[in-house]
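[recover] target loaded
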């Protein structure tokens, strides 16, 4: 009877060690992914700020092509904000920015 209990305890301790090994291994992977996402969000935040600064500068040449490029840059800015928010969502950090919509006069299709 004691030998049976010793075998069961030994097997359970062995399974516990295996479980702990994989728990630590996966925790390390999750922490590395979280660090990479955090670093990516910092890069995207800087890119968003630079794009916002560029879009706030006045136009010197008002042609159809220039306005179209400005509108595309605004769409890229909005996409950067959307991706940043979707990546930050599971980690609790949603970026709240007031992104102004395009006027009907500015929108080019």
């Amino acid at each position: 009877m004691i030998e049976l209990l010793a075998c069961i305890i030994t097997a359970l301790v062995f399974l516990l060690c295996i479980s702990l090994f994989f728990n630590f291994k996966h925790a390390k992977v999750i922490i590395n992914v979280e660090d990479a996402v955090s670093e990516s969000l910092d890069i995207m935040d800087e890119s968003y700020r630079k794009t916002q600064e560029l879009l706030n500068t006045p136009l010197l040449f008002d042609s159809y092509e220039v306005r179209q490029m400005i509108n595309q840059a605004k769409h890229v800015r909005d996409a950067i904000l959307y991706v940043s928010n979707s990546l930050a969502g599971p980690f609790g950090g949603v970026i709240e920015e007031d992104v102004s919509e395009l006027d009907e006069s500015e929108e080019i299709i």
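[recover] notes: The chain has one domain: 2-91.
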